[in-house]
Amino acid sequence: MTTPTRLASSVEVEAQSVVAAVLAKGVGPAADEEIPAIKWFGLLESLVALVRRATALDSGTSNLSHRRPPRTADEAALLLTACIPALVSATLPEQLVRLARTEKFPDMLRTAGFPGHIVTAWTTHAGRRVRAAVGRELLRSGEVVLSLDCIPQLLPTAHYEETISNFLPGTAPATGRAFASMAVARLAGATSWKQAGVALDLPPDRAVRIADVVVRRVNDGAAFWAEAHRVAVVLAEDGIDFAARRRWCSGLEALPADAWRAITARHGVVPTEAGRRNAAIWVCEHVAGNHPQLAVSSRVSAGFRESRREVYRRFCTRMPAAVLADLHNWALAQLNEKDSL
Fold first, then answer.
1. Which residues of the chain have pLDDT under 50?
2. What are the two backbone dihedrals, phi and then psi, of residue 28, each rounded to the nearest 5 degrees?
3. What is the pLDDT of residues 229-240, one digit of tens each?
4. Do the Cβ atoms of 300 and 233 come closer than 8 Å?
5. Residue 299 CA, distance from chain mean position
6. Is the dihedral of CA 19, 23, 25, 28 positive or negative?
7. How far is the first Cα of the chain from the last one, in angstroms, to the nearest whole number?
8. β-strand 27-30 against 33-36: which pairing, if any?
9. pLDDT at 286
10. Is-contact 93 83, C-beta < 8 A?
11. Cα–Cα distance, 326 to 321 (Å, whole number)
12. Cα pseudo-dihedral 114, 120, 123, 127, rounded to 10
């Protein structure tokens, strides 16, 4: 009986050449560094195990299937031709893209002993791959007839908790709400995360940083965009001009003194200067949908950013609900006068 044979492909020959060179030199290439051969082969073994585990999970087979030896030479060759170039160039293997969407992926790599520069390269590459996948989901979902002016910097808490928050485990609410608003902006026509941030008057660098980190936590692109579409429909029906409200807030460093005194007097609250500034931030967040850290009053006190956040947090949690309701009504009245609803 003759064992079937075939010619090795050029990719397989190149992978075999790398192995031979590592054996001959006693060191192996890992991204831009050379490491001892014994460590190189150990990392290759770990990478093969990760790829096989990811493949088993994606195919719905037993979680233990990745522990068995390859059934055929072709299977072994496929694994090596995927893993050796990935180890040499620190390019994420195709089979790991889905696994790389999980927050535990970097920790898995570190636990397996991969050097920091490879962990960084693979997780960065994973972010690009996942963003591209989400973009394809976006194109398939279709656009929404929604003006970018009708999207707040921060999605309202109720909308966020009912829809998008389920896709963003471990994400701070303000960060998640900003990302959710940018996602809706993508549906409304923004062609990139940076453009989405610009449309919402978010600092472009901050918008890109938020997207880079948060988008990796989305493990079901189709469902995510379906929920974002639901939110977009609600915002379109509401028709609130948040862009006009942001413009109005751009000059609101503090609530006017007479308005603040009148509101606090009705409820027995001492009208402090700090209270005026925090009231302005609250109005910008809850009426205009602005990020509180980007409010004019917050920027004026930028040198005390950490303490300002805490002071504002206490204002929000300790101020009587009746005062906040009056603040909301005051802001709506001001906007109505300026036709900025």
1. 1, 58-66, 132, 136, 139, 300, 302-304
2. -130, 150
3. 889 989 999 999
4. no
5. 24
6. positive
7. 84
8. antiparallel
9. 93
10. yes
11. 9
12. -170
